[in-house]
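Lab notebook, design round three. We kept the backbone fixed and only want residue identities now. Task for the bench partner: fill in a sequence for the structure below.
Input structure tokens:
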């Protein structure tokens, strides 16, 4: 009986060790994928799509070429598969067309853009004339814009919001104000805007992205949501 119990305990320990190792491996892979994505985005935005090569991505990211080639057959495969990371897409089905829920919506929009790419990186992508880079940006923006449209549409149908709202313009205003507010906060804090480093890549080197973004982004987002609610509600309310 004791032998069976000891064997069971040993199997449980072995399983936990295996699971922990798998979890570490998954986190390491995610970190590597993130470095590759950020380097590719930097190169495509600053120098054009033609400048993106496996060698240049490896140089900027610090990821070995052999590692990149294990993920992608060639540069074309990398460009086809690369995706911008964000927080999980927010939901709006539980939100009603009220001032308080509009504030909640804006909080969720801000949280969705506080992922690895960050607000300023989104702004950098949006300012590019490169169709490929714009396509990457659309991966981030289109789902959030659709949620914003769904929310305002329900408000119009309920008779709470005005008819004929230009939701595309309103959402662009929301994004623009987030970018401006982020820049203002950095200026007031005496933080110099991050520059793209030609030789380094990583979360800390991306514009507007820091490894501890989650620590203070909530307070910033909340304050921004307060201001934006005050501005947006009169434009929406019927």
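Proposed sequence:
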């Amino acid at each position: 009986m004791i032998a069976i119990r000891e064997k069971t305990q040993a199997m449980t320990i072995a399983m936990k060790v295996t699971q922990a190792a798998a979890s570490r491996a998954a986190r390491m892979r995610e970190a590597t994928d993130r470095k590759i994505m950020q380097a590719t985005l930097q190169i495509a935005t600053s120098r054009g799509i033609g400048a993106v090569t496996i060698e240049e991505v490896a140089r900027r990211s610090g990821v070995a070429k052999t590692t990149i080639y294990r993920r992608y057959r060639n540069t074309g495969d990398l460009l086809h598969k690369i995706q911008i990371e964000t927080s999980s897409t927010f939901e709006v089905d539980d939100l009603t067309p009220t001032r308080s829920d509009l504030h909640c919506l804006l909080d969720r929009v801000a949280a969705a853009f506080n992922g690895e790419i960050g607000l300023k990186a989104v702004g950098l992508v949006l300012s590019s004339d490169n169709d490929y880079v714009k396509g990457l940006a659309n991966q981030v923006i289109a789902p959030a814009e659709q949620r914003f449209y769904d929310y305002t549409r329900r408000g119009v149908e309920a008779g709470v919001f005005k008819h004929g709202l230009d939701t595309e313009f309103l959402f662009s205003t929301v994004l623009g104000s987030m970018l401006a507010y982020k820049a203002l906060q950095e200026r007031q804090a005496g933080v110099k805007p991050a520059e793209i480093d030609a030789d380094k890549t990583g979360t800390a080197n991306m514009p507007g992205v820091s490894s501890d973004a989650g620590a203070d982004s909530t307070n910033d987002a909340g304050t921004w949501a307060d201001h934006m609610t005050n501005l947006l509600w009169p434009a929406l309310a019927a």
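Keep this in mind before ordering anything: The chain has two domains: 2-81, 99-236.
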